[in-house]
């Protein structure tokens, strides 16, 4: 039965293509489409700052010449690409029921078993990517196990002060909320210093979002609109524009870890400043090749009772202008 796994359908190339063809379930940040994907054949990337503007530096061959960097207004920063791997196994016993000598459908059935495992692995990798991207929108990318990539420290910029939107105020001053929004939009625009933006977005906790929807200014704004019906009957997991910002309730947590903390919101520009860089897997077959979103590989157990099965992703998600990321709190 295990001879099946020596078929070309179970090669690194075929399995990697299979896992990358699975339906992507990235969550809200992934669906927003603001992270620009790219690949490198190295295990770390360099980000260049020139006159306060950060750009990616193209990788160069090991042992060859590198890029030339001026000594006055340029600075290079290196970011190691994290490695995320899941180890699994498919036992001979699990495919015993599909053994049929000479059957033309045997391979297809066993591949169905593999596809089930690929789908489970892909979901875990996708959630990990989403969590990293949320971190990039906060300015601190956190990883399971406690390690983190602090973008403020990396790029030597001061983290913006958290903005209090005072949403629990029973008698807010007229126009106060809109002024607060305008101040945040101006702060973001000034921080970007000429970078073109197509909008400003915010991911909110449920507490922040509910109080924002209930705020008198918001309700008065939508009173004559079709959306007013939604505001009267609840607007869970929705999104709406107000004060030059698209406010969206973020829904996401894994193992009790909420991606957006209670009472908080994270406001960020829609601009070409978010990056996802893929590095190659640590297999002999993938050395010095351009990285892909995910990889998969299987290899037979020494005792012949099954095959080991690995999937991995090697990627780093970051924002190159973290000083434009504004944290906010409900009160």
Describe the structure.
The protein is of the alpha+beta class. It has two domains: 2-149 and 279-315; 159-273 and 323-329, hypothetical protein PF0899 fold. It has eight helices and 18 strands. The protein has helices at 12-21, 28-32, 106-138, 151-155, 176-192, 206-214, 216-221, 228-233; strands at residues 36-39, 44-50, 53-57, 74-80, 83-91, 140-142, 148-150, 163-164, 197-204, 239-242, 245-249, 253-254, 257-258, 264-271, 274-278, 295-300, 306-319, 326-329. The strands form five sheets. Strands 8-18-14-9-11-10 form a six-stranded mixed sheet. A hairpin with a 2-residue loop joins strand 10 (239-242) and strand 11 (245-249). The chain is globular and about 75 Å long. The termini are far apart. Pfam families: Phage_cap_E. This is Phage protein GP20. InterPro entries: Major_capsid_GpE.
Short summary:
The chain has 331 residues and is an alpha+beta fold. The protein folds into 2 domains: 2-149 and 279-315; 159-273 and 323-329, hypothetical protein PF0899 fold. The chain has 8 helices and 18 strands.
Give me the secondary-structure topology.
Layout: H1 12-21, H2 28-32, E1 36-39, E2 44-50, E3 53-57, E4 74-80, E5 83-91, H3 106-138, E6 140-142, E7 148-150, H4 151-155, E8 163-164, H5 176-192, E9 197-204, H6 206-214, H7 216-221, H8 228-233, E10 239-242, E11 245-249, E12 253-254, E13 257-258, E14 264-271, E15 274-278, E16 295-300, E17 306-319, E18 326-329
Pfam families: Phage_cap_E
InterPro entries: Major_capsid_GpE
Protein name: Phage protein GP20
């Amino acid at each position: 039965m295990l001879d099946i796994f020596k078929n070309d359908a179970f090669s690194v190339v075929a399995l990697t293509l299979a896992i990358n063809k699975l339906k992507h379930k990235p969550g809200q940040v992934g669906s927003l489409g603001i992270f620009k994907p790219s690949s490198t054949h190295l295990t770390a990337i360099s980000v260049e700052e020139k006159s306060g503007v950060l750009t990616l530096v193209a990788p160069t061959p090991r042992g060859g010449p590198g890029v030339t960097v001026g000594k006055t207004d340029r600075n290079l920063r290196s970011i190691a690409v994290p490695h995320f791997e899941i180890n699994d196994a498919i036992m001979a016993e699990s495919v015993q029921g599909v053994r049929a000598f000479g059957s033309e459908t045997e391979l297809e059935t066993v591949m169905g078993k593999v596809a089930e495992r690929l789908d489970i692995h892909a979901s875990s990798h996708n959630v990990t990517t989403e969590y990293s991207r949320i971190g990039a929108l906060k300015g601190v990318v956190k990883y399971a196990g406690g390690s983190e990539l602090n973008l403020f420290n990396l790029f030597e910029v001061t983290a913006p002060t958290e903005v209090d939107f005072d949403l629990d105020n029973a008698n807010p001053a007229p126009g106060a909320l809109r002024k607060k929004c305008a101040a945040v939009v101006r702060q973001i625009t000034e921080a970007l210093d000429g970078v073109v933006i197509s909008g400003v977005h915010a991911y909110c906790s449920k507490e922040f979002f509910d109080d924002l929807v209930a705020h008198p200014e918001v309700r008065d704004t939508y009173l004559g609109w079709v959306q007013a019906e939604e505001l009267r009957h609840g607007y869970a997991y929705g999104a709406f524009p107000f004060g030059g910002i698209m406010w969206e309730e973020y829904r996401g947590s894994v193992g009790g870890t909420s991606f957006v903390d209670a009472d908080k919101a994270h406001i960020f520009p829609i601009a070409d400043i978010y990056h996802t860089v893929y590095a190659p897997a640590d297999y002999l077959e993938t050395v010095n090749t351009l990285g892909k979103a995910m990889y998969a590989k299987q290899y037979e157990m020494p005792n012949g009772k099954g095959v080991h099965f690995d999937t991995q992703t090697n990627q780093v998600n970051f924002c190159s202008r973290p000083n434009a990321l504004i944290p906010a709190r409900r009160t």
